[in-house]
Design goal:
Residues 844-853 have a biased composition (Acidic residues). This is Major facilitator superfamily (MFS) profile domain-containing protein. The chain contains 35 helices and 17 strands. It is of the alpha/beta class. Helix 26 (621-627) crosses helix 33 (753-776).
């Protein structure tokens, strides 16, 4: 299990050790690795000033370490005497004091020795020394750290605390983007041990710290009282008491200057670094411009002193910060800077405090297998994260549209045509050819939806285990075969069987499209895209009438009845579109060959606000049980059923109703074409209206009103009023538009991979229920006016309007409750890379989830 793995800390500096102490307090297993062989591997340490991080440090340290904090002071005796640094700044040429800061007690500012602080923080921490980090590895539920010695350690998360030249940073951003930016300054640093007498002139200026610049040549002096010592400078002794004022002092001294001016210009012009004796000569030469006591103090440097040449540089964290739940940077690795800024250690301490307050540290990690595949991809593609910020999201959206929308539109068009083909066959003689009597025709229409409904439940499992695009493409091919097979029907029973299989294979289109759209678009974009898909229904109505009209001209001498040829032709066209879907629609954005890695990351960031994930193949039965406890699902199902009753009437009987107005069959087919125009108009109006003004519930009611008016015209106008009745039939088609809105609403408001697949199947299945009920309202005894069916259209749509208002109220109440309890959910970069955003938790479990309405 992922929770059994340790947290990996790379680097045993201030941030790494302080983080280790926090993990100890939280009883979280960890391992900490340091490339050096010991605390003293790099020689003497240096001094640190802690100021704005002090409250954080005191809050983080356990009591037994906090009580020993004075052990780390560079001069405990001076603190006990009440002496304090004013951090004075001098003109080294004239000796004039130019400025400083107010004095402050140790409750506001302390000066500590870095090595001593590290040793204190290392108390009870098992550091693995001599382990040089090499590279990161990503696994399904873990992160791996590979070391130069060939060993690898896996953990639940990894923190790069490895300094301003961090190798973890290089792994996250790549060599080029992780490189520090050089500053044209050379610095020489060394430590020197002096007697109390030699130190007295400097201590008179400040007991802890001073710095300055020579106005003659801009050479800077940075000198820091490192420690009192009575041994070698590589072994710092315990703090001395206030009475031990006669001991010698060890100072850390830094001399720096611009490489664009003398005396250090020659350093920049060299192809090799100066040797140690040359560095000492440069320091002595630079000090000649200093006034006393600075010149005398620096001249004490011995010929055998070890002088280190420091390259000054810094690195700014990119705006699109990469901080994930498996690896991030802390301290100098995250915000490398020159020591002149005086904030490095302070940043490191506050970083640890912020991490401790994050759920990533303070709570156990998510269960294995409960994270979306998109999150795993994002962590593997960390090098592309920086490039994703420059991706034009509008251009990317258009690119996705051209690759996804046309084929999905084609699937919906063929789904409608293959379903409504029976409607057209009714005016082409299918009832006579197959000897359909009584309610046979209504039963054939109904049993398509019985097959569709029965297969919705198995769809839940397959959509969880198989990519939605692949499952959709396969089923489109199969329903094309079922459609073509209908041409071979010789009786009521054989036609019924072909229609049942058509329903079985069509069962996947609703839930598949619902899942596909949530992979590629955010919530505000889903409704217009689903509306574009759904325009296939209206387009099918338009061309369906023309197709029926064309195939009615197939003469008996052709060997096959016109309706049989129509079944074969549309079935073959469906197979072609299914193959196109199988081959051309990617399983997920991560598998899209026509997207660069940066575009994939940008797209995933774009859809991360959905909090519904992209794909997870882990089937979680508990989410199905949770769905049964979710009121929104019952309301959504009821709304779709009520709308679908009218949709079923439109799908199956519109041509029949037009023919009953006195039009001949060929004319009736053509007269049905404006129904498609009405469907497309309202579908696009609503879809793009929601994009501009996202009141989904209001747009649904907006479409229901003309549909109710259409139902009233159909019900109460006499048949002799052809124009009025035709207007009613056309207006009823406005009821088609709210269906894609309800589907997109489901996609936006249901999270959890298994629950979402279940909701998609159930909502699509409820469409089938409505379409089963709808045709059954057309009973043979009510012919030719079918008034009860027309009244059912009005009543069910009015009921849907009421349910929509209740659903809107439920969502508002839920959002308000969550805002009161949790506050506004996190957004931005941290949220985008958060494991919680990409978890497979349901909307009921994720209290940061907010419903759209």
């Amino acid at each position: 299990m992922e929770n059994d793995l340790p947290v990996i800390i790379i680097g045993a500096g201030i941030s790494g050790l302080l983080l280790a102490q926090q993990l100890r307090q939280l009883n979280i297993p960890f391992q900490i690795f340091e490339r050096d062989s010991s605390f003293t591997a790099r020689g003497s340490g240096w001094g640190l000033t802690l100021h704005w991080s002090l409250p954080a440090l005191r809050g983080l340290l356990p009591e037994h370490l906090l009580s020993r904090l004075r052990e780390t002071y560079v001069d405990r005796g001076a603190v006990e005497r009440g002496e304090d640094s004013t951090f004075p700044f001098f003109d080294l040429t004239t000796g004039e004091r130019k400025g400083g800061v107010p004095q402050a007690g140790e409750n506001q500012r302390i000066r500590v020795n870095r090595e001593r602080l590290r040793r204190l923080l290392a108390t009870d921490v098992d550091i693995q020394w001599g382990k040089s980090f090499k590279e990161l590895s990503d696994y399904m539920t873990a992160v791996g750290a590979l070391f130069e010695d060939g060993t690898e350690v896996r953990g639940r998360m990894l923190f790069g605390c490895d300094g301003n030249r961090s190798r973890v940073r290089r792994e996250m951003f790549g060599t080029e983007k992780s490189a520090n930016q050089s500053i044209p300054v050379t610095m020489f640093g060394f430590t020197m041990q002096v007697t109390a007498e030699q130190a007295a002139p400097i201590r008179a200026l400040d007991p802890f710290f001073l710095q300055g610049t020579a106005s003659a040549n801009d050479v800077s002096l940075y000198t820091s009282h490192a420690t009192l010592a009575d041994a070698s400078i590589t072994v710092l002794q315990a703090p001395q008491s206030a009475e031990d004022v006669d001991q010698s002092y060890v100072y850390q001294v830094c001399i720096s200057g611009s490489t664009m001016k003398e005396p250090f210009r020659s350093v920049a012009e060299r192809t090799t670094r100066p040797k140690n004796d040359e560095r000492i000569a440069l320091i002595r030469n630079a000090a000649q411009s200093f006034a006393e006591p600075f010149r005398q103090f620096v001249s004490v440097i011995s010929d055998g002193a070890t002088v280190k040449q420091l390259d000054l540089d810094d690195w700014a964290f990119p705006n699109n910060r990469v901080a994930t739940s498996t690896h991030t940077l802390v301290g100098d690795a995250a915000h490398a800077m020159t020591m002149f800024l005086g904030a490095g250690a302070n940043h490191a301490i506050v970083d640890v405090l912020e991490l401790k307050q994050m759920p990533t540290i303070s709570q156990t990690s998510l269960e294995s297998g409960s994270v979306d595949d998109a999150w795993l991809f994002l962590n593997k593609s960390r090098h592309a994260n920086a490039d994703a910020s420059v991706v034009d999201i509008r251009a990317l959206r258009r690119k996705v549209d051209w690759h996804i929308v046309p084929l999905m539109f084609g699937c919906y068009t063929m789904q409608f045509l293959d379903k409504v083909i029976l409607n057209y066959a009714a005016v082409m003689g299918i009832q006579k050819d197959l000897h359909l009597v009584g309610n046979d025709f209504s039963n054939v229409a109904t049993f398509l939806f019985v097959g569709l409904l029965c297969f919705e439940v198995p769809n839940v499992y397959f959509l969880q285990r198989v990519p939605a695009a692949k499952w959709l493409g396969l089923n489109v091919v199969l329903w094309g075969i079922a459609t073509a097979s209908g041409a071979a029907a010789t009786s009521y029973r054989t036609l019924l069987v072909s229609r049942v299989f058509l329903g079985v294979f069509e069962a996947t289109i609703g839930p598949s499209l619902l899942l596909i759209i949530s992979q590629w678009y955010n919530k505000s974009e889903q409704a217009p895209r689903f509306s574009l898909f759904y325009c296939g229904l209206g387009f099918g109505q338009i061309i369906g009438g023309a197709i029926s009209f064309a195939f009615q001209h197939v003469t008996p001498g052709a060997g096959l009845a016109g309706w049989r040829v129509m079944f074969v032709a549309l079935g073959c066209l469906t197979i072609v579109i299914g193959l196109g879907t199988l081959l051309l629609v990617p399983d997920t954005p991560m598998q899209a060959r026509w997207l660069t890695d940066a575009e994939k990351v940008a797209l995933l960031k774009h859809v991360s606000v959905n909090r519904t994930g992209v794909q997870s193949t882990t089937f979680q039965p508990r989410q199905i049980l949770g769905a049964f406890m979710d009121p929104q699902l019952y309301l959504m199902v009821l709304a779709v059923i009520l709308l679908s009753v009218s949709s079923g009437v439109v799908t199956t009987y519109s041509a029949t109703l037009i023919r009953n107005l006195g039009y001949v069959p060929k004319r009736a087919a053509l007269m049905n074409m404006p129904s498609g125009v009405v469907s497309i108009f309202f579908t696009l109006l609503v879809g793009f209206g929601i994009r501009k003004q996202s009141n989904r519930w209001l747009w649904i009611i907006f479409c229901i009103i003309p549909a109710i008016i259409g139902g009233a015209l159909m019900s109460f106008l006499p048949v002799s009023n052809r124009r009025g009745c035709l207007a009613g039939i056309y207006l009823v088609n406005a009821v088609v538009a709210p269906l894609p809105v309800l589907y997109a609403w489901t996609a936006a408001n249901v999270s959890g991979s298994t629950k979402r697949a279940f909701a998609a199947a159930v909502v699509s299945g409820s469409f089938s229920v409505g379409n089963i009920i709808g045709p059954q309202t057309f009973q043979a005894k009510d012919a030719p006016n079918y008034r009860p069916a027309k009244l059912a259209v009005m009543g069910t749509q009015a009921g849907c309007a009421v349910v929509t208002i209740v659903l809107y109220g439920y969502y508002r109440w839920q959002n308000a409750r969550r805002d009161r309890q949790r506050g506004k959910p996190q957004t931005g970069e941290a949220a985008f890379m958060s494991k919680e955003v990409w978890s497979t938790r349901t909307d009921q479990e994720d209290e940061d989830f907010r419903y759209s309405y």
